[in-house]
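The following block was generated as part of the benchmark described in Methods. Ligand: magnesium ion.
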Amino acid sequence: MTVQDTTRTDDGRVRYEPQDGVLLEVDDLFVEFHTPDGVATAINGVSFDLRQGESLAILGESGSGKSVTAQAIMGILDMPPAVIPHGHIRYCGQDLLTMPDEQRRKTRGPEISMIFQDALSSLNPVFPVGWQIAEMFRVHRGMNKSDALQQAIRLMERVQIPAARERVKAYPHQFSGGMRQRIMIAMAIALDPAVLIADEPTTALDVTVQAQIMNLLQELQEERQMGLILITHDLGVVADVADRITVMYAGRLVEKAEVDELYASPAHPYTRGLLESIPRLDQKGQTLAAIGGLPPNLMRIPSGCAFNPRCRMARDICRTDCPELREVTPGRFSACHFAEEVVDA
Ligand SMILES: Nc1ncnc2c1ncn2[C@@H]1O[C@H](COP(=O)(O)OP(=O)(O)OP(=O)(O)O)[C@@H](O)[C@H]1O
Ligand code: SF4
Ligand SMILES: [Mg+2]
């Protein structure tokens, strides 16, 4: 680590500095799972970056590799069975994959933090929520019990938990799903991370609460100028919050674009299919055109374009040649041989 890559905070901690505004760079990343049945390539050459103050959505069906990407960034994949045969994940210019374990562990929480997909069940049922938040400050910041609890109350207030001072001693089961998710958000931002990854942060919640949680995440992201990665299978939920979107299919990025552009005219048939399956308020009663067929088995990814067995536009070349992710118009990338036709369709 060079001196100019880091600064020190008031309490003496080392803080990494973004390189030209870039917090995170995932560069040609591969993740495989070596299982008794064979090798599954879950991440297959993925590259993207995240800037300070930017919200990036990762969109894709179940099994497309969204959570594995997040786990690779956090450094929490079980290795084995996971193997990273190739690629870099740079945080403020430092490659997390070659960083000594101890140094990397220290990035988890204060630098890069995550709200997990099963967050609602990951609070410990036998401890009061305030205690669980306070524990973050005790362990990482060395605060005494009373200061840590005051800090926990302030954070509970910030994530809009009503009567936080009284409820700091309540147990997880005494909170609704939406309130528990607010507590998980509080824990994820407690150490003021530069990057926050939210893996399906609203899936288990009803529609009104989903919107409130997304608003809260957006407010916190703007206030703290965090880089936010929003993982979702539902573009409708993140469209108002995300600046850019990357779309994953079978472990590859198939489209990358500004959210408005992608929403208005996708450049990949898979993205088009996903958009057509979102219920739209302005088209009430319209039948949803879900994408036919199933995602491939990652041990036997089809040759050519992995999407070809499900694609209405597939032609001969799609079954033999794998399309590269390429810039179709400035700032918009697609991995389809016929991206220009898709945009114009
Ligand atoms: N520990 C593991 N061992 C073997 N395969 C795994 C393991 N963890 C993940 N996978 C495989 O990697 C692929 C990608 O999984 P991942 O959890 O990233 O999907 P996802 O896009 O997050 O889906 P979902 O929307 O269902 O959460 C899946 O096929 C999954 O079965
Ligand atoms: S490359 Fe071919 S199969 Fe793949 S998305 Fe484009 S048209 Fe469909
Ligand atoms: Mg997942």
